[in-house]
């Protein structure tokens, strides 16, 4: 039987998610709830439709097809919406967009295999991301088994919060694993992401023992983790437990807020700011002093 999952999107021709030209598969669901998250639609595993009020001309085509009799302002009645997507097809102005949909393994495999020639010519492949790539572990196992057996290059972006033993066979199929390290302080990590960093740090240590190619990524956010002490501690941890890993510092940007509006959600806290380029260089300098190679995929 074909396995079904919840898909945010498949982004073809990505050059920021690993080597070469890649297709990035964004699977829905995440055990963390980061307060600055740019993809709030990816937190849950169910079909979700967004309402982009700025595009709406008030034609009412969506209302005519909605099986739940929801009006034009979807966000005023969001609790009734099943995400069926009938209004998305009816809307002439892209004011309704399917942000998460059901997709089965065959659809996902067919889509990513379309660009095989580009992967072959560029040294690229397929990257699994999210939401959280491992949040649908059974589907991910199934997809990566087939693609690995066919010789595709596979990468993964993960928040690191998963059951290590059950995900290990998937990790072993990866050419490159990007794992996030959001804060070295457990209480701060929990305050901003909803979970402690204990399991993530433990998984990093175990990943370091596998010999995998790893990039530890820090999304650098003023107001959260951009202080020099935290970056130094992060670097020291990586140096001690993942001596083969590279690190990448990614400056936080206020992208994705349109999705909050489209979902009728309050915007992330204003305390989150983008670090200056000078600050980013200083923080990278700390990691370089520690002798850690820096990656730059963005
Ligand atoms: S996704 Fe379906 S249930 Fe939700 S508003 Fe559109 S038509 Fe109605
Ligand atoms: S179909 Fe689209 S443009 Fe027309 S009222 Fe609905 S959301 Fe607005």
Describe the structure.
With 298 residues, the protein is of the alpha/beta class. The protein has 2 domains: 228 residues, Alpha-Beta Barrel (TIM Barrel), CATH 3.20.20; 42 residues, no CATH class. It has 11 helices and 9 strands. A 9-stranded mixed sheet has the order 3-4-1-2-5-6-7-8-9. It is globular and about 60 Å long. The relative contact order is 0.15. The model has no long low-confidence stretch (mean pLDDT 95). It binds iron/sulfur cluster (SF4) (2 copies).
According to CATH, what is the class of the largest domain? Alpha Beta
Report the span from N to C terminus.
38 Å
Give the mean pLDDT.
95
Q: Any idea how many domains? A: 2
Please bin the fraction of helical residues: 25-40%
Poorly predicted runs of 5 or more residues: none
Shape label: globular
Sheet bearing the most strands, described?
9 strands, mixed
């Amino acid at each position: 039987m074909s396995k079904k999952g919840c898909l945010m999107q498949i982004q073809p021709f990505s050059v920021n998610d690993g080597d070469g030209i890649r297709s990035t598969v964004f699977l829905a669901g995440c055990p963390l709830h980061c307060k600055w998250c740019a993809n709030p639609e990816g937190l849950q595993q169910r079909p979700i439709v967004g309402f982009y009020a700025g595009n709406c001309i008030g034609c009412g085509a969506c209302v005519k097809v909605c099986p739940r009799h929801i009006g034009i302002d979807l966000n005023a009645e969001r609790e009734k919406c099943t995400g069926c997507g009938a209004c998305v097809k009816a809307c002439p102005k892209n004011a309704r967009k399917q942000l998460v949909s059901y997709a089965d393994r065959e659809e996902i495999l067919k889509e990513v295999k379309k660009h095989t020639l580009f992967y072959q010519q560029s040294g690229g492949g397929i990257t699994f991301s999210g939401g959280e790539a491992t949040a649908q572990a059974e589907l991910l196992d199934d997809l990566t088994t087939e693609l690995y057996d066919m010789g595709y290059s596979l990468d993964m972006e993960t928040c690191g919060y998963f059951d290590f033993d059950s995900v290990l066979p998937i990790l072993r199929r990866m050419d490159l694993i990007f794992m996030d390290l959001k804060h070295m302080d457990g209480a701060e990590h929990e305050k901003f992401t909803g979970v402690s960093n204990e399991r993530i740090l433990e998984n990093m240590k175990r990943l370091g023992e596998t010999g995998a190619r790893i990039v530890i990524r820090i999304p650098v956010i003023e107001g959260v983790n951009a202080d020099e002490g935290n970056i130094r501690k992060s670097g020291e941890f990586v140096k001690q437990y993942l001596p083969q890993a590279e690190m990448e510092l990614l400056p936080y940007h206020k992208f994705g807020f349109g999705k909050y509006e489209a979902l009728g959600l309050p915007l992330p806290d204003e305390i989150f700011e983008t670090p200056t380029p000078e600050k980013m260089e200083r923080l990278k300098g700390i990691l370089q002093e520690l002798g850690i190679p820096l990656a730059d995929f963005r």
